[in-house]
Amino acid sequence: MKSRFSLAHFWPVLAAVAVVAFLFVLLAPGVSAGASADRAPFGGMDNPVTTITVDSGTDPDNSKSKKCSTATPCTLRRAIVQARSLPANERPVLINFNIPATPAEGYDGGLKIWKLHPLKTSDPSVFRRLEGGQITIDGSTQPGGRADGPKIVIVGPGTGARDGLIVGVNNAGAHDGNVIRGLAFQNFKTHLIINSNDNLVEHNWFGLSDDGQDVFLRDDEPEDGSGSAGVALSANVEDNVVQNNVFLGFDGVAAALRGEQNAFAHNFVGTAADGTVPGKQTDPDLICTTVDWLGGGGISLEGEKQTVSENVFAGLRQEIFQISTQPDAIRSAGSKHTIQYNVIGMDENGAEVGVCGRGIYLISSPQDVQVLHNMIVNPGLSGISLNGVLYDANTLRGNGITRQGSWPQIEGNPKAEDAIQLGPSLPDAFVDFQPARITAIDGLTVSGTSGAGSPCPKCVIEVFLDDADGVVEAQPLTVVTTADSSGNWTAQLSFPLAPGYGLRTTSTTARYNTIPNMSAGTTTGLSVLYRPAGKVFLPSILR
Fold it and tell me: pTM for the complete prediction?
């Protein structure tokens, strides 16, 4: 297909999706969710009981006991030691900043930032844990400085083998409700670890250079990336929100969501601070090679009920062996997640930079996952890949998948990559079940019935646009209809098909056992390509 989402027919659809996404933000505050009513609210920054002001960018020692209340100057290390020791009646606590704008305090007058270089410790992490809950560290409180990025930059010691901040001890409830805001992290192993509930992580940079235009490499080694992970949520934590951050260059994942009901929203992953990919190669022979933009890894989901919404994933690549598989933008294990309105492979300016791995990968027998209205442009591997012997009740709706060039096949894999790839471990009944069949395209009216040998009463049918270039793609038309009890259906297009274009379908079941032994809400893969006058095109075969 010559242009992924730039077809004149498709832009009105994209605009409609954008409006829906905007309304979603307005009407569904759970995406940038507040804390649960029965637990501590985020940090209490608006009404702190205690305020600790960091007035120095130095780190004179790595003492675990010195506090700002008993020692000068007040460094970030000492502020954390003091905050974690406060009793409940002295919380919420705000750690703010008022560091002099002098080189001795780490100030860079050119960029208008303060660079803090904490000392190495014998512990796995550089700082002591944030304990007791309701602690806010807010770099945006620093007077002066730049307005287009974090003013406070925390640089890990040595070769970046130590972890950065650790929030909480466990999920028992005594360490909840913290806020990490307005900081830039460089040269750490895992930059931020979350061990408790109801925490907010926002407006931070993870793994970016000082100016936000490139990756900050650990030990100057591309294979080490900017770190192992940007944000890592521990198992069993709940209701954490990671939003409006930038992640770049990780040799593991930018963020690992574990536990339940955590949200990852409005973040840039793999891009510069402004959401663009300035160093992306355009020569096909250089794309996803060692000289291409080092966007790093995407994100991973485990546990239940995670929400991944309205993020941009672009330029993802890791410095790994050529025979290794490049990272997925979103790798989802577990169940009941919602993955919606994400843009994968297109940067903030609309440049089609792609990602080197899969767009969305549902693995480890996922169940009840909603994959809705995502745009996937030029993935290096499959747009959406499905796998797992207990795969069930996963709904795909409104996802656009386009690619320049044919889908590759990984050596040793039994199946080629595809727009929607059906993995080798899926139930045979699912793989064999055929999506809805189109029987007629008459102007704007599309008619059809169940797929061959696959009765689908009351199924929800979605219709996608594609051309006949032999590359399986799917451009959503917001054409969704419901079949009758016999599996027959009709749908109306908003514009007539241009020459050389046809339609594909998916079917989503309405009841248990429509696909043998599988639940309602299970969406099939893509159908063959149907064109007017009865022309049918099998995937990757022109007739």
Answer: 0.91
Cβ-in-10-Å burial (0-12, 13-18, 19+) of 434 comes to: middle
**Peptide bond preceding 73: is omega within 30 degrees of 0, i.e. cis?**
yes
> What is the distance between the alpha carbons of residues 539 and 526, in angstroms, rounded to a whole number?
9
* Coil, helix or strand at residue 490: strand
Which residues on adjacent β-strands are paired with residue 125?
Answer: 163
Q: Say yes or no: 197 and 117 in one domain.
A: yes
Question: Does some domain include residue 371?
Answer: yes
Give the pLDDT confidence score for residue 38 in this predicted structure: 46
Domain stop point among 262, 284, 315:
262
Q: Are 403 and 384 in contact (CB under 8 A)?
A: no
- Are β-strands 370-372 and 395-397 bridged in parallel, bridged antiparallel, or unpaired? parallel
Instruction: Compute the radius of gyration of the chain from its Cα atoms.
Output: 25
Which residues are within 8 A (CB) of 283 and not within 5 positions of it... i.e. 6 or more apart? none
Encoded tokens for 257? 């969501």
Domain range holding 418?
Answer: 1-32+267-426
Residue 8: half-sphere exposure toward Cβ, Cα within 13 Å: 4
Within-domain flag for 510: yes
Q: Nearest-5° angle of CA 96, CA 97, CA 98?
A: 135
CB atoms within 10 A of CB 377: 25
| Residue 265 and residue 24 in contact, taking contact as beta carbons nearer than 8 Å | no
Write out pLDDT tens, residues 97-112: 999 999 999 999 999 9
